[in-house]
Amino acid sequence: MPKCKHCHSNITKFDKERCPICGGLNPLDGQTSETTDVTQLIETMPEEKKNELNIKQKSKKVASFLLMFLGAFSADEFYLGFIISGIIRIFINILFVAGIFTALYLLKIIIGQNALLYSALIAVGSLFLVYIVLGIISLFKTDRKDKNGVLLK
Q1: Burial per residue of 47-73, b for 16 or more beta-carbon CB atoms within 10 angstroms, e otherwise
Q2: Structure pTM?
Q3: pLDDT higher for 83 or 52?
Q4: Radius of gyration, CA atoms only, the chain
Q5: What would the pLDDT profile of 29-63 be if each residue is shown by its tens digit?
Q6: Among 42, 67, 96, 153, which is least packed by CB within 10 angstroms?
Q7: Hey, what's the torsion of the CAs at 138, 141, 143, 147, to 10 degrees?
Q8: How far is residue 148's CA from residue 7's CA, in Å, rounded to a whole number?
């Protein structure tokens, strides 16, 4: 990274005429304005440290299939490490099924004789249908992360 000849601050190659820090004229005199690979400046966690912390990248496909087929039981949340939000989602699912079941059972005139059975099947079936759609959507989502902030592979 080039430095200003007046204040020795890091500047970019585009600051050829005036230093943005000190205001000096021609801060790059005598220096080449080659670009640098920015990724060399970023310090990442060494592999030894990752192994010590036992951080493993979780699979996006596994999380999506868990959401599709076991989303009602928050299996994907538990897989990604979000225990509390998984428990909260289980309670929300129970309220969802109970609400739909109650509404349908109260409309037993429309359903007919087997109102109890049909109400339960429709309530549970609609919940599983919602999670199948959400699972399909999550297969194409690219920015999902686990509890450690690691992107899913």
Answers
A1: eeeeeeeeeeebebeebbbbbbebbbe
A2: 0.62
A3: 83
A4: 28
A5: 766 555 555 555 566 666 666 566 667 788 999 99
A6: 42
A7: 10
A8: 41
Could you give the count of Cα atoms lying within 13 Å of 69 in the half-sphere of its Cβ?
Answer: 5
- pLDDT > 90? residue 88: yes
SS3 assignment, position 108: helix
Residues 124 and 38: their CA atoms lie apart, in Å, by 52
Nearest to 80 by CA among 28, 148, 9: 148
The residue length of the chain stands at: 153
Sign of the CA dihedral 79, 82, 87, 93? Answer: negative
For the record, the structure tokens of 84 come out as 């509390």
Half-sphere exposure of 73 (CA within 13 A, CB side): 6
Q: CA-to-CA distance for 73 and 71, rounded, in angstroms? A: 5
